[in-house]
């Protein structure tokens, strides 16, 4: 298998503050890869470096193309969907408009796309005219995921999907992500505080600490690692 | 956690609206009442009817320039002080095209195209490079543009009066004892059609949706592949087109073209935009119409307010709105998440 996404020695900074000090990682096509680590380790920044929403240097290759000089719109047009932390929805617009925006770069009829999305998120169909801001937090997170999926991305960047959601919703969300991965072959790079859930869904993981990769391995290896167990799994 | 916070904010918002005393329902009642009053007045007095139609026509001009201000504000979060002068300059362009032999309406549509290009070029060339650094600097650039455009127009065409052919002729309609110039109906129709077309563009097209998304949440818009910079430039272009419509329709109502054509109208447009809520396109148009009609009626029926006091009156409206209800009649209660 070849890597769909490859980061080599990627650095990123917010003004004078360095957030990433040379991160290297690879995501194979069709896999789910988790990024773990404490607050401020650079997990979110890693995703932002890929999607072009932070100033970065180093080498980022996606499906054989260099990303490091492309802006966010150009990266999205290559087939990378980034669901940012919190809610990545347009609260002022309707559910339907949000989905329409997800497919902004696509031409032609959206009907098949929408039907596919509604098969994963059936409740969205009844809410198309509702303003996204009036949905609950969990529903907005689902909408963000659905919107990312209408883009028909090759790679989904998912940032802290569990943030602020009830456990039952988090489980539901991860179930859908896994389903999208298994049925549609969607490749996912997910940042998650809840290491337990993330490692359950993912086949491999990276542990970031202070802007560097501290540890990497398959999910089983990471689950078995003492330091990961103590720091992130809590047993 | 985030959810609880959000719903608390929603609660605060709706309570805030209730405390303000003007919910959306109250505003609709107010508007319907105002429309009914105008209708009744017009049926009882022919002077009142004339003033109302004339006020609506002038108000539509204020409204379309106000809408231009709103479009720019929504796209770039700054106020474009040069919007009126830009409209004046494009009116001179139309004048020149007519001098060169185009018919009025050929010149009209050609001017709209030129205005669009001018608006986008201004955003890309002058505003965007500065806006990255500071909003206030960009506002100062628009003030500079105001002076620059004024100077350039006076340099090219001179400061004396120019005359353009009347687009609507000099016909006067007599309806049940009321005489109303065709001019005012023409202005009203042209402006309202332009506004409706812009509204439809935003509401029903993919481009419009992309522009709304880019203005509302630029970061998220980029993540779905929207070229945000391009959308903002198009927004400025459309604003310039609406401004050009305002200028072209202001000229026949003043009967002459001079470099100060749009200066009082810019003040009325500001008042209208603030009255409607600076973020609300519908508010800008309704605000413009309301201001146009009330100014016209007040000058006639309130002896203390003479026509010299029209501008100060518009300022008073602006101040009152800012003090009592800063979000305007149609303004969304903006609560920004930090």
The percent range for strand residues of chain B is under 5%
Largest sheet of chain A: 6 strands, mixed
CATH class of chain B: Mainly Alpha
Which architecture of chain B would the CATH scheme give at its second level? Answer: Orthogonal Bundle
Low-pLDDT runs of chain A: none
Description:
The complex is a heterodimer of chains A (235) and B (338). Chain A is α/β, with parallel strands linked by helices. Chain A is built from ten helices and ten strands. In chain A, the strands form two sheets. In chain A, strands 6-7-8-3-9-10 form a six-stranded mixed beta sheet, sandwiched between helices. Chain A has a four-stranded antiparallel beta sheet with strand order 2-1-4-5, covered by helices on one side. In chain A, strand 1 and strand 2 (17-28) form a beta hairpin. With 338 residues, chain B is mainly α. Chain B has a single domain, classed as ABC transporter involved in vitamin B12 uptake, BtuC, CATH 1.10.3470. In chain B, 76% of the residues lie in helices and 2% in strands. Chain B has 13 helices and two strands. Chain B has a two-stranded antiparallel sheet with strand order 1-2. In chain B, a hairpin with a 2-residue loop joins strand 1 (172-175) and strand 2. The longest helix of chain B has 31 residues, at 46-76. The radius of gyration of chain B is 21 Å and the shape is globular. Chain A binds chain B through residues 51, 53, 71-73, 76-77, 81-82, 84, 86-90, 92-93, 97, 100-102, 104-105, 134, 136-138, 147, 151, 163-165, and chain B through 1-3, 6, 10, 206, 209-210, 212-213, 216-217, 219-228, 332, 337.
Features of the shown structure:
A: 235 residues, alpha/beta, 6-stranded mixed beta sheet, 39% helix, 28% strand, B: ABC transporter involved in vitamin B12 uptake, BtuC, two-stranded antiparallel sheet, 2 strands, 2% strand
List the helices and strands and how they pair.
The complex is a heterodimer of chains A (235) and B (338).
Chain A: E1 3-14, E2 17-28, E3 32-36, H1 43-51, E4 55-62, E5 65-66, H2 72-77, E6 80-83, H3 95-102, H4 111-120, H5 122-126, H6 137-150, E7 155-159, H7 167-184, E8 187-191, H8 195-201, E9 204-209, E10 212-218, H9 219-224, H10 226-233
Parallel strand pairs in A: 3-8, 3-9, 6-7, 7-8
Antiparallel strand pairs in A: 1-2, 1-4, 4-5, 9-10
Helix pairs in contact in A: 3-6
Chain B: H1 2-20, H2 24-44, H3 46-76, H4 83-99, H5 104-131, H6 135-157, E1 172-175, E2 178-181, H7 182-204, H8 206-216, H9 218-223, H10 228-254, H11 263-276, H12 281-301, H13 310-324
Antiparallel strand pairs in B: 1-2
Helix pairs in contact in B: 2-3, 3-7, 3-10, 3-11, 3-12, 4-5, 4-6, 4-10, 5-6, 5-10, 7-8, 7-10, 8-10, 11-12, 11-13
């Amino acid at each position: 298998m070849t890597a769909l996404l490859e980061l080599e020695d990627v650095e990123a900074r917010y003004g004078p503050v360095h957030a990433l000090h040379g991160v290297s990682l690879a995501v194979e096509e069709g896999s789910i890869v988790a990024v773990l680590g404490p607050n401020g380790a650079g997990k979110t920044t890693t995703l932002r470096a890929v999607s072009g929403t932070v100033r970065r240097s180093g080498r980022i290759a996606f499906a054989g193309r260099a990303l490091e000089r492309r802006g966010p719109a150009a990266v999205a047009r290559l087939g990378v969907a980034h669901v940012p932390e919190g809610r990545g929805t347009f609260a002022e617009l309707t559910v339907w408009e949000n989905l329409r925006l997800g497919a902004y770069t696509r031409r032609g009829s959206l009907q098949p796309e929408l039907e596919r999305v509604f098969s994963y998120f059936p409740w969205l169909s009844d809410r198309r005219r509702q303003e996204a801001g009036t949905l609950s937090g969990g529903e907005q997170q689902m909408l963000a995921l659905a919107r990312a999926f209408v883009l028909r991305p090759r790679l989904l960047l998912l940032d802290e999907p569990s943030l602020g959601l009830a456990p039952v919703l988090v489980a539901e969300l991860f179930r859908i992500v896994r389903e999208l991965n298994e049925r549609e072959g969607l490749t996912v790079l997910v940042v998650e505080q809840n290491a337990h859930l993330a490692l359950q869904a993912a086949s491999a993981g990276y542990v970031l600490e202070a802007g560097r990769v501290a540890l990497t391995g398959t999910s089983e290896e990471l689950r078995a690692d003492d330091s990961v167990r103590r720091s992130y799994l809590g047993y | 956690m985030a959810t609880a916070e959000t719903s608390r904010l929603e609660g605060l918002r709706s309570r805030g609206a209730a405390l303000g005393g003007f919910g959306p329902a109250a505003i609709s009642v107010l508007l319907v009442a105002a429309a009914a009053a105008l209708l009744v007045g017009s049926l009882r007095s022919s002077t009142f009817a004339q003033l109302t139609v004339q006020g609506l026509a002038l108000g539509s001009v204020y409204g379309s320039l106000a809408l231009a201000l709103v479009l720019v504000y929504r796209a770039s979060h700054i106020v474009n002080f040069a919007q009126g002068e830009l409209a004046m300059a494009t009116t001179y362009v139309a004048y020149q095209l007519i001098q060169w032999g185009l018919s009025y309406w050929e010149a009209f549509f050609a001017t709209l195209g030129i205005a669009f290009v001018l608006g986008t070029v201004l955003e890309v060339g002058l505003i965007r490079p500065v806006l990255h650094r500071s909003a206030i600097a960009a506002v100062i650039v628009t003030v500079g543009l105001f002076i620059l455009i004024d100077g350039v127009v006076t340099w090219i065409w001179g400061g004396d009066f120019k005359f353009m052919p009347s687009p609507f002729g000099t016909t006067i309609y007599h309806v049940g004892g009321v005489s109303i110039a065709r001019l005012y109906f023409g202005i009203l129709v042209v402006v309202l059609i332009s506004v409706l077309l812009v509204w439809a563009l935003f509401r029903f097209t993919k481009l419009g949706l992309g522009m709304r998304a880019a203005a509302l949440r630029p970061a998220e818009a980029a993540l779905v592949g929207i070229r945000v910079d391009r959308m903002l430039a198009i927004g400025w272009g459309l604003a310039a087109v609406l401004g050009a419509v305002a200028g072209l329709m202001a000229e026949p109502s003043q009967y002459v073209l001079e470099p100060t054509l749009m200066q009082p109208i810019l003040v009325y447009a500001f008042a209208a935009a603030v009255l409607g809520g600076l973020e609300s396109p519908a508010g800008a148009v309704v605000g413009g119409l309301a201001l146009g009609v009330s100014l016209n009626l007040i000058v006639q029926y309130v002896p203390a307010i003479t026509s010299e006091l029209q501008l100060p009156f518009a300022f008073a409206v602006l101040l009152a709105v800012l003090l009592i209800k800063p979000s305007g009649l149609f303004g969304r209660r903006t609560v920004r998440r930090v």
